[in-house]
Amino acid sequence: MPDYVDQMFSVREIPWHKPQTGDRTTVLEDYPQSFDEARKLAGLDWEAIELPAVERVMPVEMLRDRFTEIVHQSAWMPVRETVEALERLYEQSLRTDKDFRRIARSDNLKSLSYQRDTYNIIPNAAFGEIIEALLEAGRKEYGSDILLETGGSLLDGRKVWMLARINRPLNLPGDGSSTFPFLGITSSHDGKASCAARLTAVRIVCYNTFSAAEAEGERTGAVYSFSHRGDWRSRLDDARNALLYAREETEQYVEAMTELLGMKVTRAQEQLFLREFIPEPPDGIISDRVAKNIQEARAAVDLFLNSTTVEGSGIRGTAYGLVQAAGEYLDHVRAARSWESRMNRSLLQPEKLKAKAAVLAREAAMSL
Fold it and tell me: How distant, in Å, are the alpha carbons of 62, 198, 309, 325, 347 from that of 150?
């Protein structure tokens, strides 16, 4: 799987992890004012369309031999008969599956997935109507601007996303950094996921990302799924419900993080946390390379404890500081197989190791 996104935009900078996009990334000075503007910048100005699903039933070797035979005969065959022979060969080499449809991009006809004929496409335009409804509901119902921070597509358009910033900061007492709630809205054309939103809190000083579930040490987080009604104009209620969900998740996040902020830890407890968060293998026998990797990982987390993320923000010596140092390590240092996996675990899916960090930080703070 290639380690890049198809195309994306981002405001002011590329947050979290710089993907290998080359000239496929547009960095803006200000936020897009509408989905239509953001859609073009994100490379989503195409639609998913249905085409007949066909499969090749003639082996390639046989097809090549038959093709060669027709080409040789064309020297004494009329052009019309040659064309008809090639058309018949093409039809014989393919078979249409009446129960399936090929979902493809309208701009280049690249395949996105194969789905049964009962599958309903969620067009990018409908994805945009959800985004527009969120923007409108945010201004009218939530009392705050909803800003489109970044968006794009992955895997040739199979997955599309927008990251919407709820422009109301969350300020924890004693934390020298503002945190903003973000809604990661995703859709897909591979049949594996519906259109959904997940809340992610972003601590701006380091762009650490945590959900309420991760802050509470749980392994799963709430996801709001938009209903798939035939009338794509009826989206305002969905947007209001999504923002209500975001408000409830935000309150849970603030409560969990405030609890961690009030739990004091000593240097000895920090060292205990590092050993538990990045443990040695259970068998006790490790190679020099593994020992070096463990040492370097612990040193990286420890370095964040002394950085502006923790020390400079006034949260050193708290369980909250341990969690933020672990979060910066997980979001910015730990290796990933692809940018898709980086984005998923930072923004769109609950991260088990972040939940583990919250649990271990509590345990370290309560240890003797």
Answer: 49, 15, 23, 25, 12
Q: Which two tokens stand for residue 316?
A: 């050193």
Give the mean pLDDT of the chain: 81
Rounded to the nearest angstrom, the gap between the alpha carbon of residue 252 and the centroid of all alpha carbons in its chain is 22
Whole-angstrom distance, CA of residue 98 vs CA of residue 188? 23
Looking at per-residue pLDDT, the higher value among 100 and 169 belongs to: 169
- Tell me the residue range of the domain where 91 lies: 48-116
Q: Which two tokens stand for residue 67?
A: 């093709």
The residue among 203, 238, 257 that closes a domain is: 257
Distance CA 78, CA 22 (A): 50
To the nearest 10°, report the CA torsion of 202, 212, 133, 169: -40
Q: What is the Cα–Cα distance from 99 to 53, expressed in whole angstroms?
A: 8
For residues 11 and 149, give the distance between their C-alpha atoms in angstroms, rounded to a whole number: 6
pLDDT value of position 263: 95
Q: What are phi and psi of 105, to 5 degrees?
A: -80, 140
| pLDDT tens per residue, range 143-202 | 678 889 888 888 888 888 888 888 888 888 888 888 988 888 888 888 776 788 888 888
Is 112 in the same domain as 137? no
The secondary structure of residue 156, as a DSSP letter, is G
Q: How far apart, in whole angstroms, are the C-alpha atoms of residue 301 and residue 255? A: 24
How many domains does one find in the chain?
3
Strand partners, 326: none
- Residue 357 located in a structural domain: yes
CB-based contact 9:41 (threshold 8 Å):
yes
Please indicate, yes or no, if residue 109 is contained in any of the structural domains: yes
Percentage above 90 pLDDT, the chain: 21
DSSP calls for 301-318: HHHHHTSTTTGGGT-TTB
CB atoms within 10 A of CB 148: 27
